[in-house]
């Protein structure tokens, strides 16, 4: 689940793009019609091959465009009413739930979390200083580098999730640094439960979704069942169960919604239609913290727009609003791959809405994956050739000094070293987020399999050469 500052696997690893905000050209004198949005998205879906995509564009309180493309995992057409996982876009929803309680006096925004949620404790005395605001703008000191996020993913409830933080610590003094960490919003969701006396699912339904008219939205699969998402395997999209993790009632990424519902949410976030909090409360949620251009579940851009992306292992999403023009955009996809199609779609829709011309859809993602496929096949072929020629290789080096022979083995073992370091490298590129091994076989599947093929081929050649050296030496 990644924010605007979070990098996907970059071009340095033969993967895709760093997230960047869309340009905001001058506002059009004449608003574009729905056909312009539809033509762009139709071309984008056809070009990228993404299995399912839905989008909505709002202007003020009005939904000016909403549509779906492709099919879901059941073979039904994707429409603007198809529920999809919005992943980390959920963070802005959780912030809204907290702000509702703040304005009702049930939560103190700048008060310590520990005083309002007594069950919250960590193996770090500084945790007692963390405020509710710092959870929402992610300046609490929470970080994947000092919190065992893998352990947290096994929790069965928000209460258990918070209890598992007891042996973790902070990476920085509260309020002094920004780090994207899902634990922030999950603790905030538990605070909603305790302060309201309702489950997080019930509170979101009663106080957020229902007032806004979001009929296809929930925080639990049992309430709104999304279809399976997809991963790309060298250009072939395969339907898969979402990776195991803490999703039901997750304040950091558990919301399920349709494009039609997201339109109502975006209008409200732009101060139009049904309002859940005061204008001052909405402004506070959209304001950046003192240490990062990130508000309460929103990335704050230099041009005044706000956005947040959401990335699970089989779903991608993005939301974007421009308070100056009143436009709002949300895009969701059932396909998660090396490149995030939803962000590209949002940029194109924003350009159209503001009177500009969107960039032509690109097949760059498919090209990357074709190159990776060819590289995997080449690695396998070279591995087979190396094993076949291992006897000849060993005979040429029989009798030579061992250290010289060992050095000649190093090149074929380099891919194995790179593969072993792969999750750590991706985590580093992801702003310190912890990306475990199992997740490498989802959105990064083509790159992972290519690296694995090269690693296995190299190890096979090294073993074959070692065995041949031993037999040649014995024969001598």
TrEMBL record:
UniProt KW keywords: Hydrolase, Membrane, Signal, Transmembrane, Transmembrane helix
Domain of life: Bacteria
Domain Beta-lactamase-related span(s) in chain numbering: 38-338
Molecular function per GO: hydrolase activity
The enzyme's E.C. designation: 3.-.-.-
TM stretches of this protein: 367-388, 409-429, 441-464
Signal peptide, first to last residue: 1-28
PANTHER family reported in the protein's UniProt record: BETA-LACTAMASE-RELATED DOMAIN-CONTAINING PROTEIN, D-ALANYL-D-ALANINE-CARBOXYPEPTIDASE/ENDOPEPTIDASE AMPH
UniProt-recorded name of the protein: Serine hydrolase domain-containing protein
Organism: Glycomyces mayteni
């Amino acid at each position: 689940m990644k924010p605007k500052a979070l990098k996907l696997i970059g071009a340095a690893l033969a993967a895709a793009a760093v997230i960047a905000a869309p340009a905001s050209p001058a506002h059009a004198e004449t608003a574009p019609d729905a056909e312009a949005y539809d033509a762009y998205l139709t071309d984008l879906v056809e070009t990228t091959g993404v299995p399912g995509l839905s989008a909505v564009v709002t202007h003020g309180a009005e939904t000016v465009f909403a549509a779906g493309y492709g099919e879901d995992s059941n073979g039904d057409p994707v429409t603007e009413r198809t529920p999809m996982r919005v992943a980390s876009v959920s963070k802005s929803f959780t912030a809204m739930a907290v702000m509702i309680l703040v304005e009702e006096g049930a939560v103190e925004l700048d008060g310590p979390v520990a005083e309002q949620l007594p069950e919250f404790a960590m193996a770090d005395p500084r945790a007692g200083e963390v405020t509710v605001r710092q959870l929402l703008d992610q300046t609490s000191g929470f970080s994947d580098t000092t919190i065992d996020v893998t352990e947290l993913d096994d929790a069965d409830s928000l209460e258990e999730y918070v209890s598992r933080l007891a042996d973790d610590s902070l990476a920085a003094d509260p309020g002094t640094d920004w780090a994207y960490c899902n634990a922030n919003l999950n603790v905030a969701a538990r605070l909603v439960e305790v302060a309201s006396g309702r489950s997080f699912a019930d509170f979101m339904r009663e106080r957020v979704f229902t007032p806004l008219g979001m009929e296809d939205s929930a925080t639990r699969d049992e309430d709104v069942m999304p279809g399976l998402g997809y991963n790309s395997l060298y250009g072939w999209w395969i339907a898969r169960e979402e990776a195991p993790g803490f999703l039901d009632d997750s304040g950091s990424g558990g919301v399920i919604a349709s494009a039609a519902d997201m339109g109502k949410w975006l209008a409200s976030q732009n101060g139009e239609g049904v309002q859940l909090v005061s204008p001052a409360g909405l402004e506070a949620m959209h304001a950046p913290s003192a240490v990062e251009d990130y508000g309460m579940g929103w990335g704050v851009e230099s041009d005044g727009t706000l956005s947040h992306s959401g990335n699970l292992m089989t779903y991608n999403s993005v939301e974007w609003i421009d308070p100056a023009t009143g436009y709002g955009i949300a895009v969701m996809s059932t396909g998660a791959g090396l490149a995030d199609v939803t962000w590209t779609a949002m940029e194109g829709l924003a350009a159209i809405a503001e009177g500009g011309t969107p960039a032509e859809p690109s097949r760059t993602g498919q090209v990357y994956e074709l190159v990776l496929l060819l590289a995997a096949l080449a690695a396998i072929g070279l591995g087979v050739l190396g094993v076949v020629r291992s006897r000849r290789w060993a005979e040429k080096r029989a009798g030579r000094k061992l250290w010289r022979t060992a050095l000649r083995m190093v090149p074929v073992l380099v891919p194995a070293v790179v593969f072993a370091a792969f999750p750590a490298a991706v985590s580093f590129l992801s702003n310190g987020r912890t990306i475990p091994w199992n997740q490498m076989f989802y959105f990064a599947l083509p790159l992972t399999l290519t690296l694995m093929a090269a690693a296995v081929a190299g190890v096979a050649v090294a073993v074959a050469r070692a065995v041949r050296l031993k037999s040649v030496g014995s024969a001598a």
